[in-house]
Amino acid sequence: MHNVPRTVLIVDDAQEDRLLIGRALRQDAGVDYHLLEAENGTQALAYLRERQPDCLLLACELPDTTGLTLLQTVVAQAGLHVYPVVMLTGASSIVLAVAAMHQGAHDFLSKADLIAAQVQRAVNNAIEKVALLRQLEEQRAWSQLTLASVSDGVITTDAEGCITFMNPTAKVLTGWRANEAQGQALDQILRLRDEITRQPVAARMTALLHTQQTITYHALLVGRDARAIPIDYSAAPIRDRLGNPSGVVLTLRDVSAHKAVEEALRQHEAQLNTILYNIPASVYILTTDHRYLLVNRIYEQENNISNAEIHGQSVYDRWPPEIAEALAANERRALASKAPITIEESVLRDGERRFYATIKAPLLNEASEPYAIIGISTDITERKRAEEALRRREEQLHAIINAVPGLIAYVDRNERYQFVNATYGQWFVRPIEEIEGHTVQELSGAELYHQERHRLAQALAGQEVKTEATFSYPDGMTRTLVVNYIPHLDAAGQPQGFYVVDTDISERKQAEALLRQQADLLDQAHDAIIVWELGGVIRYWNRGAEAMYGWTRAEALGQVTHQLLQTQHPMALTEFEQILRRVGQWMGEVRHIKRNGQQLMVESRYVVTRQADGLYLVLETNRDITERQQVQEALRASEERYRTLFETMDEGFCVIEMLFDDAGNPVDYRFLEVNPTFERFTGLEKAVGKTARHLVPELESHWFEIYGHVALTGEPRRFVEGSEAMGRWFEVYAFRFGGAESRRVALLFNNITER
To answer: What are the CA-CA distances from residue 657 to residues 567, 681, 692, 719, 748 (Å)?
Structure first.
């Protein structure tokens, strides 16, 4: 399927608006747009002499004329409704838009609403409206010509019903020449058929010939060429001077044109109804006393009411009093002015306030008096919300820009400030109003301007400028800035000006100087100390880092730390940096790779500090714990071997903690650790954490005395002893577990009861 080709002429001196309109139209997937652009009325008229655009988008204000004047010129030269015209209005140009609609424009579009759907809808509506107007004009001309050319056919007969006369129209209708029809019987020439049944109407012919008064019928006249023509015909008696019937005169009126007009009007009404019910807006017609006569499909859908249900209702029946009165007041304004008015209205629907852009126009009769009023309302609630949200965002952005402790501005290609933030006023000790509109040289003075002139030239040539510089300002302060000039290019890539974003880094520079002083002290530390920008590069590298990793300070500065050291964090890098931003510090173990490829395990501590200019610096302190890790790994291996032996040995084994009374006498002991064989040899289950007296209440006291002596003296004991309370004999080796202050005893034993 091929897209519809269309040529659109956009007449507007604002290039940005022309670009917005062009982008919006090109988003219409079903149309191939060829766009012509004119910046003034002279260019537009030149295009119109050479081209035949499908639509004309015309701004209200142009450099050499007004949109209304240009519209009048176009209409005067080409005629009304030759070009579909859409007026481009400003936010406060509704009156101009209405005037343009009176002068021949077909739609209007606010420049504040240049979104794709609205632009496409306006162009399509204008083109469709002109097409319909042209069609209506053609149909009207055709109908008038048809009605003007209609004349009646006349036939007369004698008393016997033989034709005595036929006028030219009758000749045309019947297909018979006068000399051929002369003397023929009427029913031989005038062959009539019923319009519905198509059967001959012989009875009517008899009635015609014997009528005593004027009679009128409708029928089909079948001509000599067998063509059937719908006619209205009437018959009246011809009387002689004595009043006796001497014949009949028949008047034949070809109503085929009338029938065609009726069909055209029916189709036209159907087309208007189609437009009415499918236009993407609520359309309604009311009486002059505010009662609904007709609403379209969109109105029915938006208000959940059918056309039949609302017919005859008053706006006061339909809406709450305050809303109804506001709607009726607008209708009275339109009726009083006898001209369309454009207003914004709001109603409550389902508890929600909805806003509408409305055109209300009186329908006038032939005496130019209103007999009804039509309203066309487009729901703009979402647009209003978007505008309000945009306004709030703009306020927030303006507040943020003014709160930034740096210079933000826009300078045009004439080096003139078009916008500056509040900081300009503070540093230059001037009201903002005395800065905007003035040149850089006028504000800065000759000396500062001379210092910056080459950078300004670079920015206006389309090059981005970013550097550090120090300036003295009228407020008495000398500041070091990161100067950033960002070019503003038009669609053709040509510089139109540039944005100024100057950041005050004076405090940062002071902090860096202090940091360098402190760095001399940090160089004395054996630990590696590194300072780096969060998400950025290394800014400090002490001698301890040189010794630990092998890279000199000159080699490390400017590198990214995690890339240089191939850092292996215990989590993803992005997650690690998020923790630093959120918590401000982190401590743990990471792996690094030295310059010689050797792997290090380091204990790292990271502390984040935020500088006055918003930059985050990270102080990283690293201690080499590779040897300690190796010792710990050996210890873990040893403990693993011990645990394996402990779990698999054939002897019972446990560690107990002796419990003494205030006099220092052993009275009980608590099990701290047991192996699986312990439970099998003693029969005591889940002993860890429990005392011997809890598990065996009648346990003999000599067990406490033996183990208490071992705990206090450190002398090991090997013995064989039995327990009646437990019903078992044991061969035991007991020794103190721990240092001299320890009260723990380890027991290695066998159950020798059977032996």
So the answer is: 46, 20, 10, 19, 15
| 309 phi-psi bin (left φ>0, alpha ψ -120 to 50, beta other) | alpha
- Counting the structural domains of the chain, the total is 6
* Beta-bridge partners for 471: 479
Q: Is position 516 within any domain? A: yes
Lowest-confidence range among 225-234, 361-370, 435-444? 225-234
Q: CB under 8 Å to 36, separation ≥6 — which residues?
A: 7, 8, 9, 10, 47, 51, 53
Residue 595 shares a structural domain with residue 613: yes
pLDDT confidence tier of residue 513, bands split at 50, 70 and 90: confident
What span, in angstroms and rounded, lies between the C-alpha atoms of 68 and 75?
Answer: 11
One domain for residues 488 and 579: no
CATH for 711: 3.30.450.20
Task: Let me know if residue 399 belongs to a domain.
Answer: no
Q: pLDDT tens digits, residue range 103-144?
A: 888 888 888 778 888 888 989 998 888 888 888 788 766 644
pLDDT of residue 137: 81
Domain hosting residue 302, numbered range: 279-384
Long-range contacts from 323-331, C-beta under 8 angstroms, 24+ separation:
323/347, 323/348, 327/290, 328/290, 330/358, 330/360, 331/286, 331/290, 331/360, 331/373, 331/375
Beta strands (DSSP E) in 547-681 are 585-593, 599-610, 616-624, 652-660, 666-674
Domain co-membership, 22 together with 141:
yes
Give the whole-angstrom CA distance, residue 214 versus residue 153. 16
Q: Which pLDDT score, from 0 to 100, does residue 726 have? A: 92
Let me know: does 115 contact 93? Beta carbons within 8 Å: no
Do 143 and 155 belong to one domain?
A: no
| Domain end among 121, 147, 173 | 147
468 and 563 share one domain: no
Is 9 part of a structural domain of the chain?
A: yes
Rounding to the nearest 10 degrees, give the CA dihedral for residues 653, 654, 655, 658: -120
User: CB-based contacts of 234: which residues, under 8 Å, 6+ apart?
Assistant: 214, 215, 216, 217, 250, 251
Number of Cβ atoms within 10 Å of the Cβ of 356: 20
CATH of the domain at 112: 3.40.50.2300
**Are residues 155 and 179 located together in one domain of the fold?**
yes
- DSSP, collapsed to helix, strand or coil, labels residue 519 as helix
Residues 660, 610 share a domain: no
Cβ(184)–Cβ(191) below 8 Å: no
Q: Which token pair is 234?
A: 């009437």
Cα 356 to Cα 382: distance, rounded to the nearest angstrom: 10
The helix or strand, by DSSP H or E, that contains position 137, with its residue range, turns out to be helix 116-149
Structure tokens at 380: 């703009």
Contacts of 688 (CB under 8 A, 6+ apart): 671, 672, 673, 674
Whether 741 maps to a domain, the answer reads yes
568 and 694, same structural domain?
no
Residue type for position 672: L
